[in-house]
Amino acid sequence: MRVRAVLAWALGAATVAVVVGVPTAHWRAGYDQSKRLRVVTDGRVYRSGQMTGDGFREAIQKYGIRTVLNLQSSADDQSGKVDLADPLIPKTAFGGPRRKESEVVADAGATYRQIDCNTLDRTGPNGYPAILDDVYKVFDDERSYPVLIHCKAGLHRTGLVTAAYRMEYEGRTRGEALEELRANGFGEFKATDANVYVKAGIHEFNVRKRDADGRPRKPAKPTAEGDR
């Protein structure tokens, strides 16, 4: 009887592991494949975290993405062993051959761009983080669209660049941009002016001045003090 009880317990535990574990593994694989892939403005801008090779290919094909903008930098990895400016990414969530993101994106028919957005906490001479001038070069070019922007998690840098896009190109208010930032995982308590990135990227954010024809004026050159 004791042996039977042990066998019954083991069978039950194995059944639970299969019932719970398999769906969980499947969910996790799908999550990693298309990590937080979301529509910002359909046909124009999309956002995500660091996806797998197949994840990028599927997104590029599904949404007709022309430009993938990576907001990470080589400095993000403190070990110095991983270059996140052009990371080696696995084919699927279960592994497979690793290739540079730029190669995966190019093979899928899109253009790869990388901008180090770790300086989003530094307001420049034009009333917004100076690094956004490089981001605007992408968004100002109609040939870039549709654009997919991403960082590692798809929450913080991606959220702030999305907020800048909303305010600069769609006329959203700071309040609306902040609400979207919170709704997409930045964190209710982190998304305040106590956070230097939110302070510079939203609370102190100003859209570019425009000429009579509506075109943004050329950004002012930084002073000798830089963007401190």
Q: State the low-pLDDT regions, or none.
A: 16-29, 222-228
CATH class: Alpha Beta
How much is the radius of gyration in Å? 21 Å
Number of strands: 7
Order the strands across the largest sheet as they lie in space: 1-2-7-3-6
Overall SS class: alpha/beta
Strand count, sense and barrel status of the largest sheet are: 5 strands, mixed
Helix content: 25-40%
Overall tally of structural domains? 1
- Principal-axis shape: globular
Q: Looking at this structure, what is the CATH superfamily? A: Protein tyrosine phosphatase superfamily
Number of helices: 7
Mean pLDDT: 84
* Helix and strand sequence: HEEHEEEHEHEHHH
| Termini Cα gap | 75 Å
Give the oligomeric state. single chain
- Per the CATH scheme, the topology name is Protein-Tyrosine Phosphatase, Chain A
Question: What percent of residues are in strands?
Answer: 5-15%
Describe the structure.
The strands form two sheets. This protein has a five-stranded mixed β-sheet, with helices on both faces. Strands 4-5 form a two-stranded antiparallel sheet. It has 228 residues and is α/β, with parallel strands linked by helices. The chain starts with a helix and ends in a 25-residue tail after the last helix. It has a single domain, classed as Protein-Tyrosine Phosphatase, Chain A, CATH 3.90.190. The protein has helices spanning 2-33, 53-63, 101-107, 132-139, 157-170, 174-183, 196-203, and strands spanning 38-41, 45-48, 67-70, 88-92, 95-100, 111-114, 147-150. The model is unreliable at 16-29 and 222-228 (pLDDT under 50). The longest helix is centred in the N-terminal third of the chain and has 32 residues, at 2-33.
